[in-house]
Amino acid sequence: MSDYYPDEPGAKGTDGTSQAAAVAMAPNVSHLRRLAMRTLAQLGEATPLEAVAASGVTRESLQPRFSELRAMGLVEPTGARRRNPSGKSASVLRLTDKGRAAL
């Protein structure tokens, strides 16, 4: 992960591909974070994949933004969990007061 995470997209591994992807994504991150927050505001609460489906944006672009928003204190888990299409359990998220104020 970058020393600047969550302000900048994170990266994993050491082969450079994840780092290159993070650099390539950086110009779009602010827009995608706002979209993620607006989608959550419209839905009230959702798993990241439910919000991705409602947004019409690719999972690869939007799902990582929820981790960043959580780290920034703009999104929080409700305590509920729901199954994703894969059958795995996912946290249901909602905006925090700080997140609602940021919209």
* Share of helical residues: 40-55%
Largest sheet: 2 strands, antiparallel
Which sequence of SSEs, written as H and E, runs from N to C? Answer: HHHHEEH
The DSSP helix count reads 5
Shape verdict: globular
The tally of beta strands, per DSSP, is 2
Radius of gyration: 14 Å
- Read across the widest sheet, the strand sequence of neighbours is 1-2
* Unreliable segments of 5+ consecutive residues: none
Class by helix and strand content? Answer: alpha+beta
Q: Termini separation (Å)? A: 27 Å
Proportion of β residues?
15-25%
Question: Mean of the pLDDT scores?
Answer: 90
What does this structure look like?
The protein is of the alpha+beta class. It is built from 5 helices and 2 strands; from the N terminus they run H-H-H-H-E-E-H. The chain has helices spanning 17-25, 29-43, 48-55, 59-71, 97-102, and strands at residues 75-83, 89-95. The protein has a two-stranded antiparallel ribbon with strand order 1-2. The radius of gyration is 14 Å and the shape is globular. The two termini are 27 Å apart. The model has no long low-confidence stretch (mean pLDDT 90).
